[in-house]
Design a protein that fits this description.
The complex is a heterodimer.
Chain A lengths: L14 H18 L8 H21 L5 E3 L4 E3 L1 H27 L5 H19 L3 H19 L6 H32 L4 H14 L1 H18 L8 H8 L2 H26 L6 H22 L5 H23 L21 H34 L19 H4 L1 H15 L5 H16 L2 H27 L13 H19 L1 H11 L6
Chain B lengths: L3 H21 L3 H26 L3 H31 L13
Helix pairs in contact in B: 1-2, 2-3
Classes of the chains: A mainly alpha, B mainly alpha.
Keywords (chain B): Cell membrane, Membrane, NAD, Oxidoreductase, Quinone, Translocase, Transmembrane, Transmembrane helix, Transport, Ubiquinone
InterPro entries (chain B): NADH_UbQ_OxRdtase_chain4L/K (IPR001133), NUOK/Mnh_C1-like (IPR039428)
Main location (chain B): membrane
Chain lengths: 519, 100
């Protein structure tokens, strides 16, 4: 057996994940030397610094040429580096909003931040993985850390219930995904995506059933992870029951990483199939997810649960973008060209790479808006109300504009952004995806998307109405302030507004980020 | 020698039994065992295909799956204990505080 001769430079692409793992290990080890009452303020700071450092390294790596790392078990391309940046942003914001949340509950411990960092390292590596066992292991790294985080607050019935549901359905979906990969391995004799293209086409002529069943099982496994209807049942309960900062990390990071891997896997596995099949699959998922997510969110008075359903709806818009990647002219196979070779492409090539750009911009936009909204939810909730389930009621937001105008303004920005209303980043990102979908010819589906996002505006704006037009309820408790939450709110508000007003630079940059290895 | 197809059929049957069990059983521990059954069915599939292709990838994959399943068991049982401590039951039907 010949072992690869790795040099230090081979580890450079993994630097963002290495930073996160080292920071997590430092947090875990330092906890050994601390007494129960010692000040633990440094833990969140260290986490945020690690997130910022990995984000900065990811930005630097984005300008590296696409390349295989570790013998094709992973790749470094601008796409994966951009996803690492999104994950770092989600991690940083979630860690900031955890400061006040944990202090109020007396639950400040190094393990919490360490688990967040381990989960983020898994997400970052998942975006890079191009080999099925590596993909599986990274999905499990991020999932197992998130299961533990969900059940982190052991007192009370909700967190353990949420943790249990998340664990069972997460493990179930991982097993389905893994069975799909086993079948694809059987059909092709390899588990590396980059080696799979030619054996896959041979298998499609010889033994197509294995490939199709395998691909469907893999799609179902990913559909669970991104919470697409009809695989969404766990989402509302888990998002509601998990500690709010963890919900922020789940909605931002886990979803982004799962989408990245989904796109990467299917751009390879779909090759050689009739392009209509992946298109039909993702178009159906997108349709169901958009419509059902929005409809189920409308009656919710519980803001945290409403945001859970809204995250389902957003997965639907993203799936519309994914479906647009698989539109091909007759006799042509879908491909997403990199920015440099795009000038020679057909209009459909341009539209498909616009769709990929749209997905990436949407993931960044959703990360800022959702993480901000969850930071706000965690700022307003009180521990005593949790068991009654009223901690997240719309009434909590009544009259917020009189009590804390800054908070109300920030939340209004997040709600407008999630609802896709200008001048916010949510509007720009929806515009990119919808435009790309129309350019490839998915007109009917885009009309449904626009209509359902108009229906979605109702429940987002209802929060704004409560904040600005309802009186402060009598006997309202004073709001506690916390530097972490306020920092998270300021950062996400600035990003939501700035990226909405000045998207030009970012979209130029995204044209670069939409470069995938091997396409 | 037993043909590969038989192994694959056995694995598919085990996988379906596990999947069915996760969906219908009410005891949390049994549900958890059914997930493990699904993972082991995957292992059997990997090994059968590894024999068919005559390479090592399938064998290595099975080891990774076993390692990950062990990690999952550790966290899963901890969560089941947390559920039991907070409500005195591990019946899935009792675990439904959040419904609107």
């Amino acid at each position: 057996m010949n072992l690869p001769n790795l040099t230090l430079a081979d580890f450079l692409p993994l630097l963002p994940a290495i930073i996160m793992v080292v920071a997590a290990s430092v947090l875990l080890l330092s906890e050994v030397f601390l007494s129960a009452t010692a000040s633990r303020g440094y833990q969140a700071v260290l986490t945020v610094v690690a997130a910022a450092a990995s984000g900065a390294v990811a930005v630097g790596l984005m300008f590296e040429p696409p390349q295989e790392v570790f013998l094709g078990f992973g790749v470094l391309d601008p796409f994966s580096s951009f996803l690492t940046l999104v994950v770092s942003v989600g991690l940083g914001l979630a860690a900031l909003s955890a400061v006040g949340f944990l202090r109020k509950r007396g639950a400040e411990r190094g393990e919490f931040y360490a688990l967040m960092l381990f989960a983020s390292a898994g997400m970052s590596l998942l975006a890079m993985s191009t080999e099925f066992i590596t993909i599986f292991v990274n999905i499990e790294i991020l999932s197992i850390a998130t299961y533990a985080l969900t059940a982190y607050l052991r007192r009370g019935t909700r967190p353990s219930e949420a943790g249990f549901k998340y664990f069972i359905l997460g493990a179930f979906s991982s097993a389905i995904l893994l069975y799909g990969t086993a079948l694809l391995y059987g059909a092709t004799g390899t588990t590396k995506l980059n080696d799979m293209v030619i054996p896959l086409q041979q298998a499609l002529h010889g033994n197509p059933a294995l490939v199709y069943v395998g691909a469907v099982l893999i799609a179902a496994g990913f559909a669970f992870k991104v919470a697409a209807v009809p695989f969404h049942m766990w989402t509302p309960d888990v998002y509601e029951g998990a500690p709010t900062p963890v919900t922020a990390l789940m909605s931002a990071g886990v979803k982004a990483a799962a989408f990245a891997s989904l796109v990467r896997v299917f751009l390879t596995v779909g090759k050689g199939m009739d392009p209509k099949l992946p298109l039909m699959l993702f178009a159906t998922l997108a349709l169901l997810t958009m419509v059902a997510g929005n409809l189920m969110a409308i009656p919710q008075r519980n803001v945290k649960r409403m945001l859970a359903y809204s995250s389902i709806a957003h997965a639907g818009y993203l799936l519309l973008g994914v479906a647009a990647l698989f539109v091909a002219a007759p006799g042509e196979s879908f491909r997403v060209l990199s920015a440099s070779s795009l000038s020679g492409g057909t209009p459909l090539d341009v539209a498909r790479s616009d769709a990929l750009r749209g997905i990436l911009y949407y993931l960044l936009a959703y990360t800022f808006s959702a993480a901000g909204a969850f930071a706000m939810v965690s700022a307003l909730e009180r521990r005593e109300d949790e068991e009654k389930g009223t901690a997240w009621d719309l009434e909590r937001f009544a009259g917020l504009a009189q009590r804390r105008p800054g908070y109300a303004f920030a939340m209004a920005a997040f709600m407008l952004s999630l609802g896709g209303i200008p001048p916010t980043v949510g509007f720009m990102s929806k515009l990119l995806i919808f435009q790309a979908a129309i350019d490839v010819g998915l007109v009917g589906l885009t009309i449904v998307a626009v209509l359902s996002s108009a229906a979605g505006a109702y429940y987002y704006l209802r929060v704004v109405v409560y904040m600005f037009m309802h009186p402060v309820p009598e006997g309202a408790q004073p709001l506690e302030r916390n530097w972490g939450t306020e920092a998270a709110l300021v950062i996400s508000t600035v990003a939501v507004v700035l990226l909405g007003i000045l998207p030009g630079h970012v979209t130029d940059w995204l044209a670069q980020a939409g470069t995938l290895f091997g396409q | 020698m037993v043909p590969i197809t038989y192994y694959l059929l056995l694995a598919a049957a085990l996988f379906c039994m596990g999947m069915f069990g996760v969906l219908v059983r009410t005891n949390a521990l049994v549900v958890f065992m059914c997930v493990e059954l699904m993972l082991n069915a995957v292992n059997l599939t990997f090994l059968a295909f590894a024999r068919m292709h005559g390479d090592g990838i399938g064998h290595v994959s099975a080891f990774f799956v076993i390692a990950v399943a062990a990690a999952e068991a550790a966290i899963g049982l901890a969560i089941v204990i947390a559920v039991f401590r907070s409500r005195g039951s591990v019946n899935v039907d009792d675990i439904r505080t959040m419904k609107h």
